[in-house]
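Lecture notes, unit on protein representations.

Consider one protein chain, 463 amino acids long.
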Amino acid sequence: MSYRATVGGHVFKFATLAEVMAKATPDRAGDRLAGVAAQTARERAAAQVVLADLPLATFLTEALIPYEDDAVTRLIVDTHDAAAFAPISHLTVGDFRDWLLSDLATTPVLAALRRGITPEMAAAVAKIMRNQDLILVAKKCHVTTAFRDTIGLPGRLSTRIQPNHPTDDVNGIAASILDGLMYAGGDAVIGINPATDNVAQASRLSHLMADIIDQYAIPTQSCVLTHVTNTLECIEAGAPVDLVFQSVGGTEATNTSFGFNLSDLAEARDAALSLNRGTVGQNVMYFETGQGSSLSAGAHHGLDQQTCEARAYAVARHFDPLLVNTVVGFIGPEYLFDGREIARAGLEDHFCGKLLGLPMGCDVCYTNHADADQNDMDTLMTLLGVAGVTFIMGIPGADDIMLNYQTTSFHDALYLRRVLGLKPAPEFDAWLGRMGIMDSADGFRLQGGIPDGFARSLARLQP
């Protein structure tokens, strides 16, 4: 089937739905690199006109990657909830945009629709929305998950302490964790990207974090961001694993390049659930995603990178995660060239994930060879805070010395909580008060000095 639209007196033709989707996407480096981007702004407008007039149901009958060829497509088709889709089944993509922006699309109504919306529908409507549209709709989507604390409640902003160290030095990691906790960070997760990625090291780091969490009775969870098969071996060896991590992509071939399939994720989730380590919930999975991963893996099937990213959320959604994190600028300028493209992608990812029912966080970040700086990150972080982002990163000085990229700091999270009136997860917030880390009368002010609980531990280290 071909598609066409007339813009400025010129007729534009598109051979496939995938071509319409790609050329309707706001301009970005990765789609230019893949050769799927619109050649001109006029061609992009024509593709957006075509897309706006398409019935949403088109995405249920015309697969962008054939069902027979791709496990992610099969997952999307086989788990689609027709009853949940029924209230919006008569809408075009353009109608869907208008309805999402209306007062009819309330928080409860959007929650009831989640399982009826496919990733392709979410990607399509995002392509014809302005940034403010993405913010407004995402703000209305509330997604709550829980393990040892409750993540994603309205009026809350959580943070991940990311205590990476270039040599996995235990003292350096512990110091970074303590630093983050004293800045009221870590209620989303204490999550380490290990420099040495093997089962023994993952197990060692899991024990380190479990000891800290147990010693101070911290209502949070830990995660070693190692391969899912490593985590399975850690669990089998008796390591105290809270969350299972895996980077996921939007096509089967992308996930194959990452070294896993959907049955691996199911096995790991079952293994983590068997440990029963959660206290207020049992969401045991932590996924990371990012636009451009399918193109980087040579596994994008001619799709644009934003559509591939939305399809990755189908994988995440199936496993009921505690956290999903789009690492938006980490992949570099070949895929998102500058601060403008990074900001747009971050808002798209957050919108699509929330619309599909995921607890979306964002690693607001850039690499040092991108045309971006910390002011761009301040802008995106603030926009995402207004949009209701579930969590952001917390790293000393916003500089990850192991992964060599720039993200957000403990101080950035304090800024965002104060200017938007956001609190940490409720269980963690109460712990901050008990520990004397936050001023209970103010709720946003750090107490001066080192809290007594930490001071006693540090005193034991003195010669």
